[in-house]
Design goal:
alpha+beta; two-stranded parallel sheet; 2 helices
């Protein structure tokens, strides 16, 4: 899911007033270092990761959030031949 990388907005309610607002909850790329153990397969997730790597930003709900400098991504991809078998 792209929100794993970028973050998401969460609806927060003030208990005293009952006022509701959306609050940004940062994802993995909101840190200075983002480590992905497997390259994401979904196109939207790849696009979110590439935006973080190239633009040093993430976009959530139409809002642009700048990532802290320095920012680095380490992503690995396991070849199909080396995938672990699924145990049923």
């Amino acid at each position: 899911m792209p929100s794993d990388i970028t973050g998401t907005e969460i609806l927060e309610e003030d208990a005293a007033t009952g006022h509701r607002r959306f609050v940004f909850a940062p994802g993995r790329c909101s840190r200075k270092f983002c480590w992905r153990t497997n390259q994401p397969d979904a196109a939207k997730t790849q696009a979110a990761l590439l935006e973080a790597m190239q633009e040093k930003t993430v976009t959530v709900a139409g809002k642009l959030y700048r990532l802290e400098e320095p920012f680095m991504v380490l992503a690995t991809q396991n070849p199909i031949e080396q995938e672990e078998p699924t145990v049923a």
